[in-house]
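FORM 7B: Structural annotation worksheet

SECTION A. Query
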Amino acid sequence: MGRILTVSRVTVRPEQEREYLATVQALAALAASRSQRIWVFRNSSKPHTYIEFSESPSRASHRARASRTADELRLEDKLRTLATYSSDAWELWEEVAASQPLDAEGWTPDSESET
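SECTION B. Predicted structure
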């Protein structure tokens, strides 16, 4: 199995955006020491809307499942007071290697244009 990812849509109150971003940055710094990565992207057409990507090498080590330090727990709790997370925020996604052959019986790149 490859890496594990969560993708979380987040809405942040305007007056708390700076604190939200600072908190995510602090959490990302702690997570990096445990081979976890956290990225944040801002939606350019929806103010105060972000996407958080959290990646880890395995299910057991993902931030949604792994045991965490007191500092990490404090930062996670703080994030939940600063932002509203989508209902599917903690769904785990498993990496699929793009170079692996898929069992797509009869599929060819041209078959999609024929329908």
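SECTION C. Observations
DSSP finds two helices and five strands in the chain. The first helix runs from residue 17 to 32.

SECTION D. Sign-off
Analyst initials: ____
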